[in-house]
Design goal:
It is built from seven helices and 14 strands. With 231 residues, the chain is α/β, with parallel strands linked by helices. A seven-stranded mixed sheet has the order 5-4-1-6-12-8-13, with helices on both faces. Strands 7-14-9 form a three-stranded mixed sheet. It has a two-stranded antiparallel ribbon with strand order 2-3. It starts with 6 loop residues before the first strand and ends with a helix.
Length: 231
Amino acid sequence: MRDYPNAIMFFAAGFGTRMRHLTKDRPKPLVRVAGRALLDHAIALSDDIALDRKVVNCHYFPDQIKAHLAARQDITIVYENGDILETGGGLKNALPLLGAGPVFTSNTDAVWKGTNPLQELLNAWNPEKMDALLLCVPKRNAIGHTGKGDFLIDQDNRLTYGAGDIYTGVQIIRTDRLSEISETSFSVKLLWEKMLKQRRIFGVRYTGKWCDVGSPEGVKLAEDMFETPDV
C-alpha cells in the first residue's frame, strides 16, 4: 500500500443553505469569488501537485457540476443519489475511484492567500506516525469564520478537540478504517475519533490566510482578502 497521497476528494455535494439566495439556482461550489467558481479555486490547488486521481462528488444541481467540469478529463464525478452522504460517507462511497492508501480531501467553500495548502500538508506528512494530518489556521488568519476554534495543537503537533485553531477543510487521511464504519451517511469526524484515541491525528498551521466562504457575506470578505496587499 502506498504511504503518500496521490489522489484527492473534493466535497461538492452539499445544499449550501447558508448561501441563501446565491444557491437557489446553483450549487454552492459554483458560486463565484473574484470571477472564479469556488470549485475552480479548490481544483487549481491540486493542479500544482502531482496527483493521479481527482474525484468530485455532487448531489444538488449535479448537472451543473458535470457541465462545469466537462472539459476536465482528469476529474471523475460521483453523483450521490438519494440522501446526502456527508463527508465520511462521501469519502467511503468514492473509495473505489480513489484507491488504497492516504488521500487528500478538500472542502470547496473556502479560498486561500499564500502558499499552496496541499503542498504544506505534503511537506509535513509523516506516514510512520500519522493516520491523518489536518491543515489548521490560527483565528487571526481565519477570515469570515465566527466559531471558537476546533483543535488544540500540542508541541508534537498532535491534535485534541478544543477552542484553538480552526480546521480549514483540507487534510491528508488514511481511508482503510472506513471499513470499520457500518453507516452509509456519516461525518469524517467518526474516523477522526478513532484516530484521536490512538493519538494518530496531527495538525499543521497554515502560514497564509484562509477565508470561509459559507455565506454571501463571505464572498465579499474573500474578494477583499485577495485585494488587500500583504504587509
